[in-house]
Amino acid sequence: MGIPQTESELREWLTEVIYSALDEESGGSPAHMRIDSFAEAQIMTLNEGLVLRFWNGPEFQLTIVKSR
To answer: Which of 22, 52, 13 lies closest to 34, judged by CA?
Structure first.
């Protein structure tokens, strides 16, 4: 994937980057985290974003808003 131009492209890019980093760190076990888009997680918003859920409980939301 090239340089992301839209919010959805950035969401996909970030997902790939995070999973790639986890793969390198944990030796190929992405089971430590689950990543869903806001739509997949049924977050009621018009923004693009990611929900990161770690196996031991913490959950984070990253909102993506294009500024220009």
So the answer is: 52
